[in-house]
Design goal:
The chain is built from 2 helices and no strands. By secondary structure, it is mainly α. The protein has one domain. This is PCZ2.2.
């Protein structure tokens, strides 16, 4: 269990900022497209939004749920 936690902590430290940027850029793009009325053009943004959000929540849950 300790090895997995160390891997997730390392991944979280290096990749969470990148995925946070991806998360918010896609959130802004989705909002822009919805305001313009382009609902059919948001599937790629929604996919990356969900992937990055799920990754961030999973890593944070592992990091804070299983302290050393």
């Amino acid at each position: 269990m300790g090895d997995i936690l160390e891997i997730f902590t390392g991944l979280g430290f290096f990749l969470n900022p990148i995925f946070a940027i991806v998360f918010f850029i896609n959130l802004v793009e989705i909002n822009k497209k919805l305001i313009k009325g382009n609902e059919s053009d948001i599937s790629k943004n929604v996919l990356w939004f969900v992937i990055s959000g799920t990754y961030i929540v999973t890593i944070l849950t592992w990091m804070f749920g299983f302290p050393k």
